[in-house]
Amino acid sequence: MEKLTLALVAHDAKKDDMAHFAATHEAILRPFTLFATGTTGGRIMERCPTLSITRLKSGPLGGDQQIGAMIAEGKIDALFFFVDPLSPHPHDVDVKALMRLALVYNIPMALNLATAERLIASFKD
Ligand SMILES: O=C(CO)COP(=O)(O)O
């Protein structure tokens, strides 16, 4: 398979789920180029020492926008964004902008664990 570039993002209440997801699928993720927002990337790297992840800024400080810009530039092949729908987020406009660009550029976007499991399964082999 071509070397895909994936973006990994999780709201605070979903970071445990994201770290667990990445650990479960570490072998599938390893060959890919991985980007993550700052805190999410740190949590995944703690849990998955074999993964090499480029950490961008934290979401509220512009990380979501950085990933959005990469999507607009055609540099991201799929987005895994574990969203917490039950908490307010100070950077909600950035969250919406990120999702919007993933829609505009029609990249696969998993917003919850159930979809992420199906999307990652499509990357096997
Ligand atoms: O805020 C985020 C998504 O909107 C994620 O940012 P962090 O990974 O830095 O917490």
Largest sheet: 5 strands, parallel
Low-confidence stretches: none
Q: DSSP strand (E) fraction?
A: 15-25%
Instruction: Please estimate the helix content.
Output: 40-55%
> For the terminal residues, how far apart are their CA atoms?
7 Å
**Shape-level CATH architecture:** 3-Layer(aba) Sandwich
Number of domains: 1
Average predicted local confidence, pLDDT: 97
> Count of DSSP E strands?
5
GO cellular component, one term: cytosol
Catalytic activity: dihydroxyacetone phosphate = methylglyoxal + phosphate
Protein name: Methylglyoxal synthase
Pfam families: MGS (PF02142)
Would you summarize the structure shown here?
Substrate binds at residues 11, 15, 37-40, 58-59, 91. This protein has 125 residues and is an alpha/beta fold.
If you had to describe this structure to a student in words, what would you say it looks like?
- The protein has one domain (5-121): Methylglyoxal synthase-like domain (Rossmann fold, 3-Layer(aba) Sandwich).
- It is α/β, with parallel strands linked by helices.
- It has helices at residues 15-24, 26-29, 38-47, 63-72, 92-104, 113-121, and strands at 5-10, 33-36, 53-55, 78-82, 109-110.
- It is 45% helix and 16% strand.
- Strand 4, helix 5 (92-104) and strand 5 (109-110) form a beta-alpha-beta unit.
- It is built from 6 helices and 5 strands; from the N terminus they run βααβαβαβαβα.
- Helix 1 (15-24) packs across helix 3 (38-47) and helix 4 packs parallel to helix 5 (92-104).
- It has a 5-stranded parallel sheet with strand order 3-2-1-4-5, sandwiched between helices.
- 1,3-dihydroxyacetonephosphate is lined by residues 9, 11, 37-40, 58-60, 63-64, 95.
